[in-house]
Each structure stands twice: as structure tokens, then as C-alpha cells.
UniProtKB/TrEMBL annotation, chain A:
It comes from the Bacteria. The chain crosses the membrane at residues 21-45, 57-75. Keywords: Membrane, Transmembrane, Transmembrane helix. It comes from Sneathiella litorea. This is Uncharacterized protein.
TrEMBL record, chain B:
The keyword Ubl conjugation does not apply. The keyword Transmembrane applies. It holds the Pfam family Proton_antipo_M. It comes from Sneathiella litorea. Keywords: Cell membrane, Membrane, Oxidoreductase, Transmembrane, Transmembrane helix. InterPro entries: ComplexI-like_HydComp, NADH_UbQ_OxRdtase, ND/Mrp_TM. It is a multi-pass membrane protein. Residues 111-378 form the NADH:quinone oxidoreductase/Mrp antiporter transmembrane domain. It is found in: Cell membrane; Membrane. GO terms for cellular component: plasma membrane. This is Na(+)/H(+) antiporter subunit D.
């Protein structure tokens, strides 16, 4: 094992680079949501008959993410009941 | 080669040679056996072999049809990867047990009747436990015992089901069984134990993380997927499997968030993935069964890959606890890349295997009008993206650097990971190669524009949610802990009950023994009082005295009775 201080600097460790990734992900999210947003606006403006199917996917996409966040909070709550010492069974 | 030899027997017979070899010869042997087996499978073609009459039962040792062929093929590939991964191990027991175990799993897949299936089914249980015990720790010993009890129970229930089924139908052919009788119910229960149905699942998370570094990789591929094969063979289109599968994909996700041991995280996520396959079998359409078979193939690839990465971390860093890991990408860059490939594959990014196979099952669900299941599956997709796609790589290789500096994984481990990663991406890019192996003619194109966009939306937004939760420190920090699951019921209250019953039995036994002791003692006392030393019936007299008494008695009798 070598001393971590002597090592070369890694790109990820430079300050601000985590933020770059974070904003990159936000950018990707906007980009990938764009087709649906456009379709949705299209529908809102022109009331075309494609509403049901397009909205179906948008709804469930956000549903999945919301469900995920809810699940994380649920898991944190459940911890109070379910967590024991590491050697609980020993 | 012997005509119609069950391909599993090649590995089992080959395993018998393992103790006689060492060094390079053994390495060649253990790597060659899965290759020979897969060549054998494809040279035989489709058909049945090895018909025997035994006690009035008609056995069929080998049956190769498209369904068993794809499972057998993937098992052989997984065996080869596992053996490459384990080739550095200098432990005869592990190589021997692994080959017997894999051979019996392949043997069970190609079994044409249920007696042959049962024999191989039990052999998988008995041989695989040695991969857990090979850790040679007290924890592993206990976990192995619990594993063995549950696995053998599955076998016993299966045997009960087979006997009832034979009574009902007079047949032991291993084909569609269905849930129309008690026999079907018992057989489903036996398969359900091995495929880790909800509440029957704890053996997976209990035993797999306690096995050796290489043992877990091998274990993770076979037992549960053999059970999925058995379900697909005997219970396609059984409606009850759909809600069971739905519960299976959802329930483990909460545990995955909380669990600290990364091999246990992967065991929970394995459980969740099995849910997709159970749903596929439950739907039972051609597309769904194709999707199930494809998902088994792809799943074994990315799940092995992830287990191999965690095994390499355990091998080098000595731990796979989230609370102790972080920043390993500096020391193990190649393993990091392979882990990321496994992660995007299990999360079903486009151009990975998981995208293709999951899409087939999801489409089959929509085609079958199972609209309630669709959001459940989407939710599970987000959950899987979180735990296997983000949590495992992030906390192991990135996250806070804890100053662990180790070597990169050994070259054989990297090669094995490379094979798995190759398949993960290869199937995603060229799904047609996998489709040729599927049991039914494929009629599915995963890469429609709408599907790619909606999948990417779900995945990127989940990544965003994860990053936000990490950034604002909302994501639950991992702590050294045990998270209670259903097994608590049999590991704590049931254990206490068993101990209390044991004490009661011991008390009653001692009490009964005490009374019996007293009876025997009093008999001995009475005897001692009469026959004891110097007591009335034990006194000796001289012979002249004795004769005088006899003559006197005789004289008395003569006088008294005369006349």
C-alpha cells in the first residue's frame, strides 16, 4: 500500500467536477424528456388524438421516479423497526 | 461420446477426476468440462434418449428440446465463466463440489421425467452446500446448515408431489403439470422454495453472502434458474404466478436500500430479478416464455458479472461492506469498468442485454392486458437502477475515498468478468444471436423509438433522483447492521420455541427417568431385603439340618393325610 497523499490527482477529485457530472445528468434528463414535452405541448395546443398514449409513458416515467423517492423515505422509516446490531444473530 | 448421455453427467463424471489431478492438468480439466458439455448438447440436437423401465416407472434420462437447450447452454457458459474465475483457487473440495453442483443442475434441466429430476434436484442441494462451508467460518457453517435444511425440504416436498401425481395420473413425465390437484400444489411449492418466492426466499440472502469468493459466483447462477426452468416447464400460464412475481420484484427493493453487505444487496436484487421471470412464466404466452428464457440468459451474465466484481473486491480489500468501502476505482480501474457494464446491463440501458429481455416480458404483460403490473414493473425498474445500477458501483468504487489501496483483481478473474461483460453488451447490440436459441420463433423488436426514449427517461430521471438524494445527504447512509427479514421468525421466535420445547421434553424425560429409577430401586431394595446377604431367603443351612426338616415335613404330611 502506498500513501494516498503521494498519488496522482484524479479528475473526479478535483473540486467542482462532481457538479459538472450533476449538471450533465440534468442536461441529459432535459434532452431525453424533450420529445415527450414537445408532444405534450403539441397536444395541449392542438388537442390531437394522440394524448392518451403519449401521456401514458410520461405519467409512468415520473411515477417510477416518484415511487423510487417515496421508497427511499419508506426504507429510512422502516430502519427504525428492522435494524439491529451487526452480530444480532450470532 | 456415449449416445444420448445426459450432458450434466459429463461434469459429474469429470468431477470425479478432480481429486486425482493438480496444477495445470486440473485447470485444463475444469475448464474443458463445460466446453465438452455444451458441444455435446449441440451435437446431439433435439430429441430424447436413455429410456429405462425401473420399478414400473418409465425413466427418460435425457430430453433436449428448445426450452431445455437454452437453459443448458447458458448453464454451460456460466460454468465456464465460473471456472475461469475460480481457476486460481487451490481447494479441491471447492472445485469438486462446484462441478458436481453444476453438473446436477444441467442434468436436472435435461431430465425428461420427474424421478430423474428429483435425483438431480437433491444433488444440487447437497453438493452446493460445500461451496458455503468452504468459507470455513462458524457463520458459514450455520448459514450452510439452514440452507441445506431448506433445500432438502424442497426436495422432500417435490418427492411428495411426484408420488401424488403418479397416483393421480400414472405418469412421471416432466411436462405441463398445472395447479389442478394437490400434487400440482406440492410441486409448485417445491419449485417455489428454490426460486425464492416471497416468504420462502430467505435462504438466498442468508447463504449466498457467506459462501467463498468464487462459491457465491457459482451459486448465484444455477439453483434459482433451475427452479425457473422447472416452473416454465410445468406451470406456464399459471395465473397465481403473476402476483407472486409482482411481489417478488417489489419486496426485496426496500432491503436493498438498507443492506450494508454488498453481496447481500446483490442477493436481494437477484431475488427481485427472479420476479420478472416468474411473471413471464405466469403470463405463459410465447413472447413471455421467450422473454423469460432470454432474461435468464442475460440475467446470469450481468448477475455473475456483478457478483464477480464484488468477489474481486472481497478478495483484494477483504470486505464488501458499504460502510468500509469507497474510492476503489483508483486501485481497481478494470474491475470498476466491468462493474459499470454489469450495472447498466441490469438497469436495462439500451444496447445492453437487460434492455432486450426485460422489454420482452414487459411487452408480454401489456399484450396480456396486465395494466396493473405495468407500473409495478416500472417502479421496480427505477428501484433496480438505484440499487444494482447505482448503489453497488457508487459506494464501492466512487463515494468517499477511505484510503484502501489494493492491487487490481487477478488476471483470471478479469478474464471471467470480460467474458460476462462481452455477453452483456453483445446480446444488447446483436439480440438476434440470442433469439435464435429461444424456445419459440421470436417476433419481437426491442429497439422501437418510443421504447428507447421512455426507458432512457426512466433511467436518467432515476440517476438524477439518486444524485439529488446523495447531494443533499438524504440517501440513507449505510451503517454496520443486520436488517431483519422474514427469516427472523425462524431464527429467533421459532428457535426459542424449539429450545423451550426441547427443555420441556428434557424435563419430562428426566422426570420419567426418575420415576423409573425409583421403581427399579425399590424392587432392588425388596429383593435385597429378602435375598440379600444374611437375609431369610439367602441363609445357608447344613445338609443334615436340611434333611431333618424335609423328613419332618414329610412325616407331618404322611400323618396328617393318612386315612
Amino acid at each position: 500500500m502506498s500513501n494516498p497523499d503521494d498519488e496522482k490527482k484524479y479528475w473526479l477529485e478535483e473540486p467542482g467536477n462532481f457538479n459538472k457530472i450533476f449538471y450533465g445528468v440534468i442536461g441529459l434528463c432535459v434532452l431525453i424528456a424533450l420529445p415527450k414535452i414537445l408532444t405534450l405541448l403539441d397536444i395541449l395546443l392542438y388537442k390531437q388524438g394522440r394524448f392518451v398514449l403519449a401521456d401514458f409513458f410520461v405519467f409512468y416515467t415520473f411515477f417510477g421516479v416518484l415511487g423510487y423517492v417515496v421508497m427511499i423515505f419508506l426504507a429510512k422509516k422502516l430502519r427504525a423497526f428492522l435494524m439491529r446490531d451487526e452480530d444480532y444473530y450470532d | 461420446m456415449i449416445e444420448g448421455l445426459n450432458p450434466g453427467l459429463i461434469l459429474i463424471l469429470g468431477a470425479l477426476l478432480v481429486p486425482l489431478t493438480s496444477g495445470i492438468i486440473r485447470s485444463i480439466l475444469i475448464l474443458a468440462l463445460p466446453v465438452i458439455a455444451v458441444i455435446h448438447i449441440h451435437m446431439l440436437g433435439l430429441g430424447t434418449w436413455g429410456h429405462y423401465e425401473f420399478l414400473g416407472l418409465s425413466l427418460e434420462i435425457t430430453r433436449i428440446d428448445p426450452l431445455s437447450r437454452i437453459f443448458g447452454t447458458i448453464f454451460c457458459i456460466a460454468a465456464f465463466m465460473g471456472m475461469v474465475y475460480a481457476v486460481h483457487v487451490k481447494d479441491t473440495i471447492q472445485h469438486f463440489a462446484a462441478l458436481i453442483y453444476i453438473g446436477s443442475a444441467i442434468g436436472a434441466v435435461f431430465a425428461g421425467d420427474m424421478i430423474t429430476l428429483f435425483a438431480f434436484w437433491e444433488l444440487t442441494a447437497i453438493s452446493s452446500v460445500f461451496l458455503i462451508w468452504a468459507s470455513r467460518t462458524e457463520r458459514a457453517y450455520r448459514a450452510g446448515m439452514r440452507y441445506l435444511i431448506i433445500q432438502v425440504t424442497s426436495g422432500v416436498v417435490l418427492l411428495g408431489g411426484i408420488i401424488l401425481y403418479y397416483q393421480d395420473t400414472g405418469s412421471i413425465a416432466f411436462d405441463y403439470i398445472g395447479l389442478s390437484s394437490i400434487a400440482g400444489g406440492l410441486i409448485l411449492l417445491a419449485f417455489g422454495i428454490k426460486s425464492a418466492f416471497p416468504l420462502l426466499h430467505n435462504w438466498v440472502q442468508d447463504a449466498y453472502p457467506e459462501a467463498t469468493v468464487t462459491g457465491t459466483v457459482i451459486l448465484s447462477a444455477f439453483t434459482t434458474k433451475l427452479a425457473i426452468y422447472a416452473l416454465a416447464r410445468a406451470f406456464p400460464g399459471t395465473d397465481i404466478l403473476i402476483p407472486i412475481g409482482g411481489a417478488m420484484i417489489i419486496l426485496p427493493i426496500v432491503y436493498v436500500v438498507l443492506e450494508n453487505d454488498l453481496r447481500r444487496v446483490l442477493a436481494y436484487s437477484l431475488n427481485s430479478q427472479l420476479g420478472y421471470m416468474v411473471i413471464g412464466v405466469g403470463i405463459g404466452s410465447e413472447l413471455a416464455l421467450n422473454g423469460t428464457a432470454a432474461h435468464v440468459f442475460v440475467h446470469i451474465m450481468y448477475k455473475s458479472l456483478l457478483f464477480m466484481c464484488m468477489g474481486a473486491v472481497l478478495f483484494r480489500a477483504g470486505t464488501v461492506k458499504v460502510s468500509e468501502l469507497g474510492g476503489l476505482y483508483k486501485s481497481m480501474p478494470v474491475t470498476t469498468v466491468f462493474c459499470l457494464i454489469g450495472a447498466i446491463s441490469i438497469a436495462a440501458f439500451p444496447l445492453t442485454g437487460g434492455f432486450v429481455s426485460k422489454a420482452m416480458i414487459q411487452s408480454a404483460a401489456l399484450n396480456g392486458g396486465l395494466n396493473i403490473l405495468w407500473p409495478v414493473m416500472l417502479f421496480a425498474c427505477a428501484g433496480i437502477m438505484d440499487h444494482s445500477g447505482l448503489k453497488v458501483p457508487f459506494f464501492t468504487f466512487f463515494s468517499k475515498d477511505r484510503g484502501i489501496r489494493v492491487q487490481e483483481a487477478p488476471i483470471n478473474m478479469l478474464i471471467a468478468m470480460g467474458i460476462a461483460a462481452f455477453f452483456c453488451i453483445g446480446i444488447g447490440v446483436f439480440p438476434g444471436l440470442l433469439f435464435d436459441l429461444l424456445p419459440y420463433a421470436p417476433t419481437y423488436d426491442a429497439y422501437s423509438f418510443g421504447h428507447i426514449v421512455s426507458a432512457l427517461q426512466l433511467l436518467f430521471f432515476t440517476v438524477l433522483a439518486f444524485m439529488l438524494l446523495i447531494r443533499y445527504k438524504v440517501y440513507p447512509m449505510e451503517l454496520r447492521s443486520t436488517v431483519l427479514d422474514f427469516d427472523w421468525f425462524y431464527r429467533v421466535p421459532l428457535k426459542r420455541l424449539a429450545l423451550a420445547v426441547g427443555r420441556l421434553v428434557l424435563f419430562v424425560w428426566n422426570w420419567t427417568l426418575g420415576i423409573a429409577n425409583n421403581i427399579v430401586n425399590s424392587v432392588i431394595n425388596v429383593v435385597a431385603n429378602t435375598h440379600g446377604n444374611g437375609k431369610a431367603l439367602a441363609r445357608t443351612t447344613s445338609s443334615s439340618m436340611a434333611i431333618m426338616i424335609i423328613v419332618a415335613v414329610l412325616g407331618f404330611v404322611v400323618v396328617f393325610f393318612y386315612g
